[in-house]
Each structure stands twice: as C-alpha cells, then as structure tokens.
C-alpha cells in the first residue's frame, strides 16, 4: 500500500472527538486502553454525549483506570448510562466503590481473570465491539503503534468492529508486535497532550531491606520480571553492578530502563527474544517513555504472549518479583482483596509465578512488608481474608524485611515455621499459637 493511499485513508478517517464518539451506538461493549493509553479527548466527548442522553447502556471493559476515566466516563452521575467493568481495580475503582457504598449501591463490576487472559476475555468471551485507545503517530507504511500499552489493545484492535484511536505525538513509537494499521481504524482524533506519569514511590527502610534480600537471589545473566511500586525501584537500584541481565516483564518501569542504560541489562543470555527487553505495558516518568521511543532494544507485545507461562518458561533463569497483601501459614497469597473489598486484582502475578517455576533454574519471589496498618496488623496471617491469588502449590520464595522463606519442598509444618520466622517479631508468638490451633505443629 503506497504512502499516498495511507495518507488518503488517514485524512478520510480524521475527525473531531465529537464526531468519533457519535459512531458508538447505545449498547456497545467497549474496551478502554489501560491507564496511560486512555484517550482523554475521546473520553471527554463520550461523557458529554452520555450526559445529554444521546447514548446509553454502554459497558466499558478495562484494566486499571486512570484519572482521565475517573473524571469523565466513570463519573457516578453517568452510572446509569456507562457501566465500568473492571478486570483490575486501582485508586479510581476504590474511590468509586466508596461513593457507591455511601449511596447503597453495589461496587464496581469486576471480572476475575489473569492479565494474560484479558485479550481472550475481551475478544472471545465478552466480545467487545469497540476499542478506545491512544496510539503513536502513523508511520510511512500506515502503521500506528500502541506505545506504552500493547497489552490487550493490539489484540482487540484485530477483531473489534470499531477501532477509535487518539493519535498523540507524545506516545512513543515502539517495536515488537505493537502495530495497528490505518485500514483497521474506524476513526482517529489528533490530540497532543502530555502522557500521564507514574512517579516512583518513596523507598522506605522496609523496601530497601527487601530489595537487598531479593537482589541476593538475582545473578548475572538472569531474566527479570518486576511489578509496580517502590519495591521494584529498590531492587533495580541494588542490581546496578550486575551484568548480562535480561528483561521479559509484564510492566516496563523506570528502574528496568535505568538498568538498560547502565549496561546491566543487555538481554544477551536470553533464549527467547535475544537482545531485546520485552514488555506488555509501561508506566513511569516521561523519561521512560522517551527511552522507549524508537528504541530497537525494547519491544512491546500483547499480554497473551508476554504473560503466557509457557512463553515465560522458554527463557532460562527467570526471576519473577511480585508483591502481595497477605500470606497465610500454608503459603498461599492474597494479593488483591482487603477489608472485605476488591483492592486490586490478580493481574499477572500467577502468570509469572508459574512461568518462573517452569523456567530452567527459575525463581519466583513474592514480597511484602511484614506489617500493615502502621504496624498494627501482620501480613503473615493464619488464614487468608480474601481469595487466593497465588496458590500454596505455586509459591516459591516469600520475602519480608525480616528475611525469606523458601517454601519449595517443605511440609505444611515446615512452611508455617519458616513464615513465622520472617513475620514481624511482635506477631510471631500469636502466629505460633494459631498454627497449633490449625494443627500445623
């Protein structure tokens, strides 16, 4: 397809945000770009259309809403016209749940699923018909890229009846299986606005201690997956003197980019996608997005590839690092549910735990502070207070600031003893008593 042809298609499909959302009928099942990929102009126009009653009965499926969605389409006053359907809760959903509870309404609709299965859920189960997302500018061949958010956006773009994109020059152009062709696009809106940024969390003394312990499990040549928050920053800081590291991660974060810049990560010892860092989505400061832009050493791929345990396991020496909310004395982890409510979701935790477990010489690490509620509650608990995110059969290494417990091959009694040993000292005696009541000792 010649350049003149793709430019003609581009011009024909270019529209205002108001014109673009007018293509969305009532009853549409929508997939919304994750976090950084939320298209602000399109969402503002869609909210305005719903506000005046021009469209309704919309179901919007997504993982991890950002402030843009919270301030537009997810306003509580639009709840009878636009239904958020979350596959991963964050601060927006937690705030909405609080508002809804005060009015006697049920919480935000939630679909439990692993992140790696999100494209399947959206395309095959829910059968979304519309995609709204932000993309990088079109190249000479007529391709946009999904930039920071290849995840489920790229697979949904291949099947959705309507693909409505916001073209933002600040969205990085990335390599990998990240492209969407102009012929697949129904309408496009140009909007040059700064991308949302995720600042690194402050590294507390517990994070630093955990980071040092986790870094001790990581060797030159290992292939890394990191989660979100202050802990990955602490771990990455402790790895700056390592060499030949690889990256195959659900989330690209600033700490991993820093390791690439320093030369600690070169991906030379991977068995799959050799020489490149692979990710599904990215969140961080502006410098991260600039680092990713047209960087041949970074590739974005759909999350059903990145998070597929059989794909993860094709690399040797995978080290998966994730966080949890509580660990019971049997070794099971609840990483998503607290105080009787959905707090986050399983995300890709179990995907990578299992991928690392099947990787040759792989290590799966799940970390948490030993206490919560300003020291008033233990995160090592007799039994979980919510659903099991990572089953005890899959858990390998648990880390707190007080040490680590390698649960592989241990009996339930040995597990309980090892976990009590890394609990906060103030809770160890009580946990031992509870373990006896559970007949673990």
TrEMBL record:
Stored Gene3D superfamilies: 4-hydroxybutyrate coenzyme like domains, Acetyl-CoA hydrolase/transferase C-terminal domain, Glutaconate Coenzyme A-transferase
Keyword Hydrolase: yes
Stretches assigned to the Acetyl-CoA hydrolase/transferase N-terminal domain: 8-191
Molecular function GO terms recorded: acetate CoA-transferase activity; hydrolase activity
GO BP of this protein: acetate metabolic process
Keywords: Hydrolase, Transferase
UniProt KW Transferase keyword: yes
Acetyl-CoA hydrolase/transferase C-terminal domain residues: 284-435
InterPro entries the record matches: AcetylCoA_hyd_C (IPR026888), AcetylCoA_hyd_C_sf (IPR038460), ActCoA_hydro (IPR046433), ActCoA_hydro_N (IPR003702), NagB/RpiA_transferase-like (IPR037171)
Family affiliation: Belongs to the acetyl-CoA hydrolase/transferase family.
PANTHER family (alphabetical): ACETYL-COA HYDROLASE, ACETYL-COA HYDROLASE-RELATED
Protein name per the record: Acetyl-CoA hydrolase/transferase family protein
Taxonomic lineage from the root: Bacteria, Pseudomonadati, Pseudomonadota, Betaproteobacteria, Burkholderiales
